[in-house]
Amino acid sequence: MTNPVFDCFQSCLANISSGQELVLFNNESYDLGCIGQCSSAHTQSYADTSPKYTLIIQIISVVLITFGLFGKVFNCIIFLRKPLRGTSTGLLLLLKTIFDTLPLLCTFIFDTKFFLKDEQMNSSRITCLLARSSDIFVSWSIGFVVLCCLTRVITIVHSTRLPQCTRLHVFLLIILMMICGACYNWHVFYYKSLQKHKDQDFTYCNVIFGRQIGYFSFNGFEPTADLLYNAPIVNFVVSSLIPFTIVAITNIIIIKRVLKSPTTRLSKVDLHRNGAISSSSSSSKSSSQKRFSRSDPNRSSLRHIITKKDVSYETTITLTTSCVFLTTNSIASIYVYVKTSRRAPRNIIHDGAKLTEDVKTSNVYLILRMLTLLDTVLEFYIYFLTGKKFRKEFFHVIGEILQHSPLRKYFKFKRTSASTNNTLPIIKENKQNKNVNSNGNILKNNTIINSKFKTSIITCNGKQEMLDRIESTV
């Protein structure tokens, strides 16, 4: 299949006539007026095909955003419930899910052209900054996943060289990671010479993709040449290679130390989970009670209720989230790295094909960025298929939502049966507690009565003995 731009330029080479303005390129003469006509024709053809790419991106974005938001909402609800509630793993996964949603909204608002066009995005630096800010949120999401794996490994591996992570340590790590993520994405605040790189269809604001510093023109993707390093290679190493290595190592350690370890180790992890307690594994029950006495009784009771299944459940969620998230998020950066590292030599005849290829690269990159929403959907279904506790919590959340919705009339029988099944053991426990308390009170009263009766008998016996002694002496 021939390229119409290439054929047009070839016709400019064939229709050379004297008296016309010529341009010399590669030892061949071209008609400058014919080249201008071919360029304008290519511009019009791109203007006709550009809405097709936009329509495809809009359709894909609506579908993926719908499923992505569904999975993210339920994941946030599950992370806020027991046994992940109040743990560093639940906190980090919750923040990761929230900062996954923000790039989703940025993509939906700025990249799909539903609400803002290129001219509106290019009108102010604040709008341009918001349009570019999705890269910061993606970096923070990767950082939260890496921190989740690292804190989980530090919690599991009991070593003198690795201190137990407290809540203060986790908070400081989160702040440090967010600062590093903002510094790494410095190009978000980079706003160079907007009028110089502005033309009819492409603007400088929305063309920086995948941290590949550059802009689009009618000659294709043009790098700004202001960097002292190779941006695609640095992006590939920082966004894909390093997180993959860290997560792979931590996951291997987690699998080896927890999933294949005896139950005694899980009980130790139970006591040391998520930086709540920082004591040695040989502590006695009295010392553990002293540590729990500093907190309120409700939290201490919740910590005592934590079982080995909860620890394995938390570990399974950490492994699943880290593997799926980094796999789906690395596809876009790898794609851009491959496409930008293999560039054909620039040629005026191939500029049309080069521009078309760069436009396709940009659109495919946006689609791959939106495909990262599938990580939440995959995580949700993996949790649902493999975790009995997750299914139980999910159905419980659905029941609570239906209970406060207009559909409660249609689900009244199921809801009442479920509620009665849930309330029966609670009522039984309350009755048992009342019986135990009443029995305890009865026993206390009996002991008090018996002690008083015994003391009265003893006093009576003492008085009788004193009277007998007096009578005997008299």
Task: Explain this structure.
This protein has 474 residues and is mostly helical. The protein has two domains: 50-403, Rhodopsin 7-helix transmembrane proteins (Rhopdopsin 7-helix transmembrane proteins), CATH 1.20.1070.10; 411-473. It is built from 16 helices and four strands. The protein has helices at residues 4-14, 32-79, 88-111, 118-121, 125-132, 134-156, 167-184, 231-259, 263-272, 285-292, 297-305, 308-341, 351-371, 374-386, 388-403, 412-473; strands at residues 22-25, 28-31, 214-217, 220-223. The strands form two sheets. The protein has a two-stranded antiparallel sheet with strand order 1-2. Strands 3-4 form a two-stranded antiparallel ribbon. A hairpin with a 2-residue loop joins strand 3 and strand 4. Helix 6 runs parallel beside helix 8 and helix 8 runs antiparallel to helix 12. InterPro entries: GPCR_Rhodpsn_7TM (IPR017452).
Task: Give the CATH superfamily of the largest domain.
Answer: Rhodopsin 7-helix transmembrane proteins
Here the CATH topology of the largest domain equals: Rhopdopsin 7-helix transmembrane proteins
Strand fraction band?
under 5%
For the biggest β-sheet, the strand order reads 1-2
Give start-end ranges of low-pLDDT stretches: 193-203, 207-212, 215-220, 262-307, 344-351, 413-421, 467-474
Calculate the terminal CA-CA distance, rounded to whole Å. Answer: 142 Å
CATH architecture of the largest domain: Up-down Bundle
